[in-house]
Design goal:
The chain is α/β, with parallel strands linked by helices. Helix content is about 35%, strand content about 15%. It has one domain: Alpha-Beta Barrel (TIM Barrel), CATH 3.20.20.140. The longest helix is centred in the last third of the chain and has 17 residues, at about 225-240. Bound molecules: zinc ion (2 copies). This is Putative hydrolase.
């Protein structure tokens, strides 16, 4: 199966990544991608930019090297009540925002706390989905996280980088994939590239999607129009406001 959108990439601005957005776009084009989300880390990550960086992403052209650039962020969850490190006023101007737990930004807690943090974040209208929720450093009740994603029409990421960078992720990622399929929750596939050569690398997640026979319509990255339609859904959700908050 072909995945034509990469929903998770970093530029050197993240503080521990090493390519520019233009280099990433060139790599995306070479891999045959139609779209690439730039999702640099939020300010709580050591070395990451301030919120002002995310405010000014509009200066980047919508197309680079023929690849549609989605202006986004990987927002840090900074407490177990789901507090985030980029303000809502900035998040609402972005095309796309994924949120994640990192041990550099929050000390890992138990399953109850981690699960509560993810559910709080899924309720936030400015957040589109969870990045690498299968990270075993932050164990969660996968069934409850997937149920919340279903309830709030949010996305669960299957992160290619987790298979090599976050030891022990594979069984959790598989469980997320199986439960998303069963619940009809849409998944996104991110390379989580920290260097241009990693953009569009989906070997591990592609294998996982094939193993669990993920239905085509649940894979947002498999079709550029489907992902565009999701971005429109985000805009409408934000315009409406969310009664869950
Ligand atoms: Zn991350
Ligand atoms: Zn990342």
């Amino acid at each position: 199966m072909q995945l034509v959108v990469d929903t998770h990439t970093h530029t050197l601005v993240s503080g521990h990544a090493y390519s520019t957005v233009q280099e990433n776009a060139r790599a995306a084009k070479a891999k045959g991608l139609a779209m690439m989300a730039m999702t640099d880390h939020g300010p709580a990550m050591p070395g990451a930019p301030t919120w002002v960086y995310f405010e000014n992403l509009k200066v980047i052209p919508p197309l680079l090297e023929g690849v549609r650039i989605i202006k986004g962020a990987e927002v840090n969850i900074t407490d177990y009540q789901g507090r985030l490190d980029i303000p809502d006023t900035t998040l609402r101007k972005l095309d796309f925002a994924i949120a994640s737990l990192h041990d550099l930004c929050l000390i890992p807690a138990g399953i109850e706390e981690n699960t509560a943090a993810m559910i709080h974040v899924l309720r936030n209208p400015y957040i589109d989905g969870l990045a690498h929720p299968g990270n075993p450093q932050f164990p969660v009740a996968i069934d409850r996280v997937v149920a919340a994603a279903k309830q709030y029409h949010k996305l669960i990421e299957l992160n290619n980088h987790s298979f090599t960078a976050r030891a022990g992720s594979a069984p959790n990622c598989r469980e997320f994939a199986v439960q998303c399929k069963a619940a009809g929750v849409r998944v996104i596939c991110g390379s989580d590239a920290h260097f241009s050569t990693g953009v569009g690398e989906f070997d591990h997640v592609r294998r996982l999607l094939e193993t669990v026979a993920m239905p085509e319509e649940l894979m947002l990255n498999a079709s550029a129009p489907r992902f565009e339609a999701y971005l429109q859904e985000r805009k409408e959700r934000i315009a409406k406001g969310d009664p869950g908050r």
